[in-house]
Amino acid sequence: MNVDLFDFDLPTDRIALRPAAPRDAARMLVLDGDATRDAGVADLPGLLRRGDLLVFNDTRVIPAQLDGRRGDAKIGATLHKREGPRRWRAFVRNARRLRDGDVIDFGNGVSAAAVDREEDGSYALDFAGDEPVELLLERAGHMPLPPYIAGKRPTDERDAADYQTMFAAEPGAVAAPTAALHFTPALMAALAAAGIGHATLTLHVGAGTFLPVKATDTADHRMHAEWGRIDAATADRLNAVRTAGGRVIAVGTTSLRLIESATDADGVIRPFDGDTSIFITPGYRFRGIDGLMSNFHLPRSTLFMLVSALMGRERMQAAYAHAIAKGYRFYSYGDASLLLP
């Protein structure tokens, strides 16, 4: 499909620079079948059914943004996928100043050799020393806010908490599963009281989620692989919910993509442990999920293509036009949508 079909006019002041406070005070646009209504995240227990199950991504964002030097050249790196105990694949700024094997000094006793350059311009970074890389990143790295936010203000101490979900447990993501940022212990208690369950899986979100689609046709766009895991007990629980007539509602596109990657042609969700580069566009037949809670995405993005596949492109174009007209806040720190086909 032509990527232009997924374009729309988004005023820059609609991109939220801070999250709502409290988190569950965010607004939520509900598309339920053919109906559309304005609501709030706190209304969620009354919008779902007893027996439904929400699925959260429990990945934890690491301080994956690094600024360093190679000689007199400033070099920036955004880690996006772990390739070994001490090796991370990274998108590099000012990469033209690097040669294979060059060592980048990130300060605070942290350095890495840049090797194995790929066609997309990324390098593998081999971190020096014996300390766990996680400790090195705590010393030298900072929170990798999306460029649409970081370009408007610097990262600060608030982001260290604001950009983690309450479910964050498994370190490895370089971007937050942002739909889950709206949840609080109070909201989870209200959902449980309404008979709505929850489960977790792990997908380590990569920086590729921020990359623009440069191709003119969706068939020519390459997704970067991300590692995920659904254990056998979780797969069994999700299948049991659907067998009993409940709905599996993915919280975030990351949860959705992993569930769909793990679901076979008969609609059975299988245990999963490995990489996925699934790219969902209109025409895709959903097999493992029955709905999605998601933030509002950017024009021409793979994520807007995904929600268009779930609800229909024209429906989502109209819904986003409504959201823009009504002042909804977009992207990582913005408001939410509940999409129930």
Automatic annotation (TrEMBL):
Main location: cytoplasm
Entry's Gene Ontology BP terms: tRNA queuosine(34) biosynthetic process
Pathway the protein contributes to: tRNA modification; tRNA-queuosine biosynthesis
GO molecular function (one): S-adenosylmethionine:tRNA ribosyltransferase-isomerase activity
HAMAP family in the record: QueA
InterPro entries noted in UniProt: QueA (IPR003699), QueA_dom1 (IPR042118), QueA_dom2 (IPR042119), QueA_sf (IPR036100)
Name of the protein: S-adenosylmethionine:tRNA ribosyltransferase-isomerase
Family stated for the protein in its record: Belongs to the QueA family.
Pfam families noted in UniProt: Queuosine_synth
Quaternary structure and interacting proteins, as annotated: Monomer.
EC code(s) of this entry: 2.4.99.17
Compartments where located: Cytoplasm
Gene name of this polypeptide: queA
GO CC annotations, alphabetized: cytoplasm
